[in-house]
Amino acid sequence: MRAYVVGNVAIDETYEVEALPTEGESILGTRRSSELGGKGANQAIVLARCGVPVTFIAGVGEDARADRLRADLVREPVDTRLVTLPDLATDLSVVMADPRGGNAIMTTVDCARSLDAATVAPVFAEAAPGDLMILQGNLAADMTATLFDLADTRSMSVVFNPSPVDRRFAGLLGRAAMQFLNEAEAKAYTGKTGEDAVRALVDRGSATVVMTLGAQGALLGTKDGVHTVPAQSCTVVDTTGAGDTYQSVALAASIRQDAPMDVPALHAAAKAAAITISRFGTISALPSARELDGLLARDT
C-alpha cells in the first residue's frame, strides 16, 4: 500500500512568547527555529519514517524558501513531487508558542491553494486500488472535491483531516473512509461535542472517525461504537505538529497490522505525539525513524 499525501509545505518560523497575544496587543518574542513544516509535509514525513511508502505532492514558489525546502525534503524517505508556481511566494507559517505549550499559528496558503487538478492528476496514474489519498484543509475547496472524485476513479481510500475548518468541506466528510480532527473542528462541522460529534460524523458515512482531545486523549468512532483512548503523559513544550504525528502513526500502525483502525493503533499514536510535544519546533520535534520503529514494534 502506498500513501499519496497532497497538501502544503512551508517554512515554519517558531517564536517563543511569554503569552499568546490578544487582539491589538504587541508582544516580544524569541525565534527558536526556522525549518521545514506544513501539515501536509509533517504528515508525509512521519508516515514515511514509519516505513510506509509515501508520495508527497505540494506547491512551492520559485524562491530561496523553495530551494531550502527541496534540500530538506531530499533527506527524508519520501517520494517528493513539488510543483513550482513561479508567480507565488513559497508558503510560510509563523508559530507563537507559550511556556505552557499553547500555540497560535498563521500559515499562508497561496501555493497550496493554487495547485490544480491538471498538474496533480498525472501523479495518480501510478496509484493502485486500495492506496491511500491523504488530504488536509489547506487546499482550495474545489480542488479538494476534485481529488475526492479522482480517488473514487482510482478506487483509493481517502483519509481526510479537514483542518483548518472550511464549511465547504462539510459535504465531503462522509465520503472519506477515515477522518482525523480535533474537538473544535468536529463541533464546527456537526454542532455537537464529544461522543455525539463522533457519532454524527460516522453517521455521515465514514468508516472511522478519530477525534483528538489534547490532554484528554482521543475518541475512536466506528459503526460499532465509540471508544476512549487516553493520552500519553509528557512534559508539554510545544504542541506544533502533534496532531500530524498522531494521525500518521495511527495510520502506520493500522497498515502494519493490515487491519482497521483500533485502540492499540491510537495508543501508539499517543506515545508518538508525546515525543513531538516534548520538543520545540516542527521537523526537529517529529520522532525519528528509529524512535518510531521501536515504538511500533512494541505497540503493534
Number of helices: 9
N/C terminus separation: 18 Å
- Stretches with pLDDT under 50, minimum 5 residues: none
Based on the coordinates given, report the CATH architecture. 3-Layer(aba) Sandwich
Gross geometry: globular
Q: Summarize the helix and strand pattern as letters.
A: EEEHEHEEEHEHEEHHEEEHHH
Determine the structural class based on helices, strands and strand pairing: alpha/beta
* Count of individual domains: 1
- Fraction of residues in helices? 25-40%
Structure description:
The protein has 300 residues and is of the alpha/beta class. The protein has one domain (3-299): Ribokinase (UDP-N-acetylmuramoyl-L-alanine:D-glutamate ligase, 3-Layer(aba) Sandwich). The protein contains 9 helices and 13 strands. The chain has helices spanning 39-49, 64-73, 117-120, 141-153, 183-190, 194-203, 242-257, 263-277, 289-299; strands at residues 3-6, 10-17, 29-37, 54-60, 79-84, 92-97, 103-107, 132-136, 157-161, 178-182, 208-212, 218-222, 225-229. The strands form 2 sheets. A 9-stranded mixed sheet has the order 5-4-1-8-9-10-11-12-13, sandwiched between helices. Strands 3-2-6-7 form a 4-stranded mixed sheet. Helix 1 (39-49) runs parallel beside helix 7 (242-257), helix 7 (242-257) packs antiparallel against helix 8 and helix 8 (263-277) packs antiparallel against helix 9 (289-299). It is globular.
Jot down its keywords.
nine-stranded mixed beta sheet, 300 residues, globular, 9 helices, UDP-N-acetylmuramoyl-L-alanine:D-glutamate ligase
